[in-house]
């Protein structure tokens, strides 16, 4: 991770049911945790759920009506086992790429007690018009909104 990147730290609960037979968080559940981190940091996608607290960066509030934010790619590297604890995992999250119609989100998931990095990951999101299915360009407002929370890819 670029140490000068402005990250958003969110705390994502680990559920007892997330644990596998080895006592650590199952790889499939890690993807769920990444999704939860995105929602905590950037808010729920427009038109979903009921109002709640504002996220640190209301990225998804800034999309046009009927816009879907779809995952087009995940990349995950497991650095150490993320053992189940009854306290939330620390997840640092930031924007690591910004293209015409997509953005990359980088994550670093750490053990909340030891601080040991356990997972590094990156998700590519594309904005799609929910009616036509066409890609939508990232708006100047969205670019400005995420600018302060941008840095290098966690895989750089």
Question: How would you describe what is shown here?
Answer:
- The protein is of the alpha+beta class and 156 residues long.
- The termini are close together.
- The protein contains two helices and five strands.
- A hairpin with a 3-residue loop joins β3 and β4.
- The longest helix is centred in the N-terminal third of the chain and has 16 residues, at 27-42.
Spatial shape: globular
Poorly predicted regions = none
How many runs of DSSP E, i.e. beta strands?
5
Query: How do the strands line up in the largest sheet?
Result: 1-3-4-5-2
Q: What is the strand content?
A: 25-35%
Distance between the termini: 7 Å
The number of distinct helices, counting runs of at least 4 residues, comes to 2
Profile the largest sheet: 5 strands, antiparallel
Order of helices and strands: EHEEEEH
The computed structural class is alpha+beta
* Arithmetic mean pLDDT: 90
The percentage helix is 10-25%
Rg, rounded, reads 16 Å
Strand and helix layout:
Elements: E1 8-12, H1 27-42, E2 67-78, E3 89-98, E4 102-110, E5 117-129, H2 140-146
Antiparallel strand pairs: 1-3, 2-5, 3-4, 4-5
Please supply descriptive tags for the structure shown above.
156 residues, alpha+beta, five-stranded antiparallel sheet, 2 helices
């Amino acid at each position: 991770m670029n140490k000068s990147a402005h990250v958003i730290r969110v705390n994502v609960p680990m559920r007892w049911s997330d644990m596998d037979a080895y006592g650590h968080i199952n790889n499939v559940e890690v993807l769920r945790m990444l999704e939860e981190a995105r929602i905590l940091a950037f808010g729920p996608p427009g038109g979903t759920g009921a109002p709640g607290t504002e996220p640190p960066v209301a990225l998804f509030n800034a999309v046009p009506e009927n816009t879907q934010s779809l995952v087009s790619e995940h990349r995950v590297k497991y650095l150490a086992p993320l053992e189940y604890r009854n306290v939330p995992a620390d997840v640092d999250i930031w924007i690591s790429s910004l293209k015409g119609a997509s953005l990359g989100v980088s994550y670093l998931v750490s053990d909340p007690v030891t601080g040991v990095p356990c997972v590094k990951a990156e998700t590519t999101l594309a904005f799609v018009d929910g009616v036509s299915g066409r890609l939508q360009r990232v708006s100047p407002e969205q670019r400005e909104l995420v600018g302060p929370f941008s840095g290098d890819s966690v895989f750089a």
